[in-house]
Amino acid sequence: MTEQQPRVGVIMGSDSDWPVMEAATAALDEFGVPYEVRVVSAHRTPHGMLSYADSAAGRGLQAIIAGAGGAAHLPGMVASATPLPVIGVPVPLKHLDGMDSLLSIVQMPAGIPVATVSVAGARNAGLLAVRILAAADPDLRAKMEAFQVDLERMVAQKDANLRYKLTHPE
Amino acid sequence: MTEQQPRVGVIMGSDSDWPVMEAATAALDEFGVPYEVRVVSAHRTPHGMLSYADSAAGRGLQAIIAGAGGAAHLPGMVASATPLPVIGVPVPLKHLDGMDSLLSIVQMPAGIPVATVSVAGARNAGLLAVRILAAADPDLRAKMEAFQVDLERMVAQKDANLRYKLTHPE
Amino acid sequence: MTEQQPRVGVIMGSDSDWPVMEAATAALDEFGVPYEVRVVSAHRTPHGMLSYADSAAGRGLQAIIAGAGGAAHLPGMVASATPLPVIGVPVPLKHLDGMDSLLSIVQMPAGIPVATVSVAGARNAGLLAVRILAAADPDLRAKMEAFQVDLERMVAQKDANLRYKLTHPE
Amino acid sequence: MTEQQPRVGVIMGSDSDWPVMEAATAALDEFGVPYEVRVVSAHRTPHGMLSYADSAAGRGLQAIIAGAGGAAHLPGMVASATPLPVIGVPVPLKHLDGMDSLLSIVQMPAGIPVATVSVAGARNAGLLAVRILAAADPDLRAKMEAFQVDLERMVAQKDANLRYKLTHPE
Amino acid sequence: MTEQQPRVGVIMGSDSDWPVMEAATAALDEFGVPYEVRVVSAHRTPHGMLSYADSAAGRGLQAIIAGAGGAAHLPGMVASATPLPVIGVPVPLKHLDGMDSLLSIVQMPAGIPVATVSVAGARNAGLLAVRILAAADPDLRAKMEAFQVDLERMVAQKDANLRYKLTHPE
Amino acid sequence: MTEQQPRVGVIMGSDSDWPVMEAATAALDEFGVPYEVRVVSAHRTPHGMLSYADSAAGRGLQAIIAGAGGAAHLPGMVASATPLPVIGVPVPLKHLDGMDSLLSIVQMPAGIPVATVSVAGARNAGLLAVRILAAADPDLRAKMEAFQVDLERMVAQKDANLRYKLTHPE
Amino acid sequence: MTEQQPRVGVIMGSDSDWPVMEAATAALDEFGVPYEVRVVSAHRTPHGMLSYADSAAGRGLQAIIAGAGGAAHLPGMVASATPLPVIGVPVPLKHLDGMDSLLSIVQMPAGIPVATVSVAGARNAGLLAVRILAAADPDLRAKMEAFQVDLERMVAQKDANLRYKLTHPE
Amino acid sequence: MTEQQPRVGVIMGSDSDWPVMEAATAALDEFGVPYEVRVVSAHRTPHGMLSYADSAAGRGLQAIIAGAGGAAHLPGMVASATPLPVIGVPVPLKHLDGMDSLLSIVQMPAGIPVATVSVAGARNAGLLAVRILAAADPDLRAKMEAFQVDLERMVAQKDANLRYKLTHPE
Q1: For residues C10-19, average pLDDT
Q2: Which reaction is catalysed here (chains A, B, C, D, E, F, G, H) (predicted)?
Q3: Do A62 and A8 touch, CB atoms closer than 8 A?
Q4: Sequence-ordered list of residues with C-beta below 8 angstroms from that of F24, at least 6 positions apart, any chain
Q5: H or E stretch including B91?
Q6: CB distance G155–F14 less than 8 Å?
Q7: Which of helix, strand or coil describes residue G89?
């Protein structure tokens, strides 16, 4: 959580989602994007959830990342009450391996989109928020391009390491 | 729709759900249970949806039947803002055959239950509402018992017909 | 299990279901709803199961919670022989993660509804039974409303805790 | 349906299952195995269903074929009240393509087996009943062996036809 | 494995299936049904597998229980080369939780039935073999009826124990 | 397709995807967002696809909408070679009902996000692109807010129509 | 079917699979690869199927394409009795949309591989056979490279057509 | 990894796939087939991945084995840029048990085949590569035939061991 005016809201239905959702904030930190973190539940705090969504754009947020599991209604409900792009993270529960979370988030009816990432894919949710902000922010876009070059370098390093290991058995 | 004070609210996210949901009202009609029908969308009218849920018990409703498809949030969101029993009907969309609707409705987190029926099972939603009201209404329970005897009779009739047909080939 | 005349029957096919089903009775306890607990198997005691269902309403029960796993027939079979609302809890077995249990319970044919909750969702089954009884019991409804306010408070507390933790790193 | 003492009971939850289940009786007819056909519903006639199962062995039946769809409880419930081998046919309903029917029939708990065939596989249910009777009936087994030789011949004929067609384009 | 002329063949594709399949032989032992156990692989010993199936009836077997996992071809292939009833046990592998095994066994084409039991349901496979033999063996049928009475008793005992435990907290 | 400098690229693997993808462009038209439409195939034109992605940001695009079916690689591959936000539309093919398309698009590895919408959800892809552009464009955001108010009005109208119809039977 | 010594065997369990499998032979024809077509059933002609597989390599075949549906055993069983590469085509049946066929073919145990293509993907099976032969046949590889260039051209043409159509409304 | 000119490329998206993919190289080692191992990522090194595919045939490779998980694009993308046969290994990730990986690899569009093996089936991928090379290499084919005889022997040994163990209880 950062002191600056947050540009991204990272919300989840329960603090038990934090171990999954933390990776979204780590990605935002890497890019220096200020954010806020909130526990907001569609089912346990329906009015509070709508208030959060209603006020998000006015408070300066530019994107919202929402994680939820099972009958996961938080991303879609927040999207219904904000004009901001909302990114949904399907949090896997103990049963059904996140398939219920995924379908509950991605299968939104026409009119109200949710940008869905993979099951437990909070890191990618953070990176998607960066790309969204970068669409109108050349500096951030340059950082994203540099990040992608780093990914290439990391793969090249892993490739070299694996080949070294295979040709130099202990 | 009946003139009497409605005891059951039958709601759906879109009038395109009516062909599926109509069977719920037909069941209520058979038992003489007054009801109201409303189009209420979790995603397109989030505030209206919460208002409906907030006021339902105070207006004399005793149960709510909510049908929705895809990322089906209506039953769960209504359940979050009313103490009434909420019955969810998974409406199948063009793709995924209702599996997304079913999981989005039934996999509610602990604290907020939704009484889920089968994919497109609106008739059973109506009958479940009757059973719920009948839990404290001996007359209605007697009607339900008579209805179940009728089901038995119908099966006996079908059994006789099929056996007649098989032994009397044209 | 309570000394008072039970209003809810909590049944399961095997005592191995008890660790899942216990949460239903805990919820009933929280609301002071008297209940009975029974091991009743559709497949191993078919006649005993029907007797239980036949006599349930006459003995003063107002709702039945039935848990079963795999080819889970207990909730549907009990519903076929009682006019009471029956709540089905899909108990997950070792394989298939409860998907078989869920479909075996929720996909009931028209005529015989089962109010299905989530996989292993016994707590919600208890809360749904409370809502059903509360439909005709203002005191119980007030308790449910208070319970829902408590849920909101809990989320607010978790929200505050998480924000504190994030802004006060050790 | 045959005049002789039936050896196989072919039952289904509704006469709407007959178009699927008819193929079971056709297979029995091909092998000259006498059978009876009944509409028996686990959910609409629970007591009648148990009576049917209780009396089946005593009336001279040696196997039961039961077809059902959705939350398909008929095969398993009949198996619970008879010592006879019970063959289950998953009848596909309008939604979920028979996957619910299949899981509801095949995933029986230890103690009560149901011999499950493929979705809509009523012909194979009939053939399985023949194999079961043939286990102690050399004449019937010889017929089954002849039937299997015929299958081979049919494939050889189809093979020849397809090769002829491909080498003799019109 | 018994010294007597075996009436049931219990086969599996690999000795790694034995921990699952052992329960089939335990059930046969309880009913005093003699059986043989063999490792026979459809994929690794295709000719040996067909020889086994070809000779099974002639050697006095009356039913075959075949367990296999993944693309599980053993039950269906054996059924193609014997007139005996073949019972298939879907053995779950490390991935997909037995769903592949189940579909590979149960979805047999018309002409060649396999009596499929639940994922890892080897005990029920043994009990199904007993029911099949009992179809023409009054003594064995009496044992099966007694077994079913025992199941009822066991449930009654579990019911009593659970109720005792709940009313006598430590 | 518009004469202005396009801000969004709408691409698809084949012109057979156009009937699904057209809805994305209709949504962009409603909001006056200029876009380009291209057939670009990950599998049939891999180098052309990478060139498209490489050059997209430099040519002034701010978001890309990519539709594909089956083993749907287009959205993910484009995302790998551009820093722009990429929106993936799972196009359903003849078999598997779009589930393969959905999983192939949404389950991206950490590092390369794709904003996935529902099966065949091209209209929402268009609306999501609008929200993304609107994150830094107050005028567009105002339009999106107006659009959401219109959705509410439409639901209110449908609600009134259905209630009128139900109370005024012909 | 060609007069030359066939290099590829195209087999299927029933002539009803021909409408799907024909596309494999069309692909082979495009590349001038000689092939034979046979109806060979794992379940109805198990011995004939093994003979076919046993003799395939000796007769000069270099690859086998096998199509089958449901509990699809043909590809795996043929692979068990030949050292040739076997390509499996999951043929979709009336129910389950080919998912059963796919899993029955692809999930082969270690030791016996089947090269599986998409549901109903017979054209790709033909193209895969060409690639396999081309691995040691420079002329055929050159044809495959030319074919891939043609694919690129076709996409470019479709791209141009779609753009023309969109900019030249009638 | 071998000093000889490699005939097979074994590639994977990340070194974390190595524990699964290692089995492919073990199989190649058993048959003395030289190979190379590379970490090549479709998503993190898209240009490097295409370069690898473009140059593979020219460098003397005759087949490529590619493993990937989740939205697994590596096998299909490599197949799009090489005329060589490409074998895809679905690597299971933490969620969804490899079903996403399988569908992302096997459901390739017409034109670009990928020879898919089972979830985590890297050993079979290696064996399939051997069969592909053996299609034009009599020595390698003889080795594959010997390998298949060994499989038969192993099963015979396991069969003998299990029977010994069952008849000689400790």
Answers
A1: 96
A2: 5-carboxyamino-1-(5-phospho-D-ribosyl)imidazole + H(+) = 5-amino-1-(5-phospho-D-ribosyl)imidazole-4-carboxylate
A3: yes
A4: F10, F65, F67, F89, F122, F123, F125, F126, F129
A5: strand B86-91
A6: yes
A7: strand
Q: Which is nearest to A65 in space by CA: A107, A103, A27, A111?
A: A27
Q: Report residue G3's pLDDT band, with 50, 70 and 90 as the boundaries.
A: low
pLDDT at B108 over 80: yes
| Chain F residues touching residue A84 (CB < 8 angstroms) | 131, 134-135
SS3 H103: helix
- Count the neighbouring beta carbons within 10 Å of the beta carbon of residue E149: 10
- How close H96 gets to chain A, by Cα (Å)? 6
Which tens digit of pLDDT belongs to each residue from D19-56?
Answer: 999 999 999 999 999 999 999 999 999 999 999 999 99
Q: Return the exposure string of A129-154: e unless at least 16 CB atoms fall within 10 Å of the residue's CB, then b.
A: bbbbbbbebeebbebbeebbeebbeb
End-to-end CA distance of chain F: 46
Tokens encoding D93: 């309903």
Binding residue per annotation — E41?
no
What is the tens place of the pLDDT at every residue in F19-42? Answer: 999 999 999 999 999 999 999 999
Cα separation, C69 vs C97, whole angstroms: 10
- Phi, psi (5° rounding) for residue D121? -85, 50
CB C77 within 8 A of CB C42: yes
What is residue B80's predicted lDDT score, i.e. its pLDDT? 97
Task: Give the residue from G114, G18, G14, G135 showing the smallest Cα distance to H106.
Answer: G114
Give me the pLDDT at residue C26, please: 98
Q: H44 vs chain G: nearest CA distance in angstroms? A: 24
In this predicted structure, the answer to whether residue A121 has a pLDDT above a threshold of 90 is yes
Task: List strands edge to edge, sheet with H35-39.
Answer: G35-39, G8-12, G63-69, G86-91, G115-116, H115-116, H86-91, H63-69, H8-12, H35-39
Distance, first Cα to last Cα, chain B: 46
Q: CA-CA distance, B105 to B95, in Å (whole number)?
A: 17
Nearest by CB to G97, from F1, F39, F96: name it.
F96
* B109 backbone dihedrals φ, ψ, rounded to 5°: -70, 155
Single out the residue of G87, G95, G145, G148 nearest to residue G118, CA to CA: G87
**C-E Cβ pairs (cutoff 8 Å, strict):** 49
What interhelical angle do B46-56 and F138-167 show, nearest 10?
40
Q: Is E26 on the interface with C (CB under 8 A)?
A: no
Taken in order E112, C99, F120, A144, the sign of the CA dihedral is: negative
Q: Put the strands of the sheet holding A8-12 in their side by side order.
A: A35-39, A8-12, A63-69, A86-91, A115-116, F115-116, F86-91, F63-69, F8-12, F35-39
Judge: A162–H15 Cβ closer than 8 Å, yes or no. Answer: yes
Phi/psi for D148 (5° steps) reads: -70, -35
Cα atoms in the 13 Å half-sphere on the side-chain side of H39: 23
**b/e B62-88 (16+ beta carbons within 10 angstroms → b):** bbbbbbbbbbbbbbbbbbbbbbbbbbb
Question: In which region does residue G38 sit, left (phi positive, over 0), alpha (psi from -120 to 50) or beta (all else)?
Answer: beta
Provide the mean pLDDT of chain E. Answer: 96
Mean pLDDT across chain G: 96
**Across-strand partners of A63?**
A8
CA–CA dist C99, G112 (Å, integer) = 31
Rounded distance, CA G78 to CA G49, Å?
Answer: 7
Quickly list H helices, chain C.
18-30, 46-56, 74-80, 99-106, 122-134, 138-167
C-beta neighbour count of C164 within 10 angstroms = 9
* Per-residue pLDDT band at B168 (split at 50, 70, 90): confident
- CB nearest to H135's CB, from G62, G80, G141: G62
Asked if D48 and B156 come within 8 Å (Cβ–Cβ), the reply is yes
* Residue G137: Cβ within 10 Å count: 18
The first and second tokens of residue A137, run together, are: 């922010």
Q: Look-up: residue for tokens 């992605």? A: F53
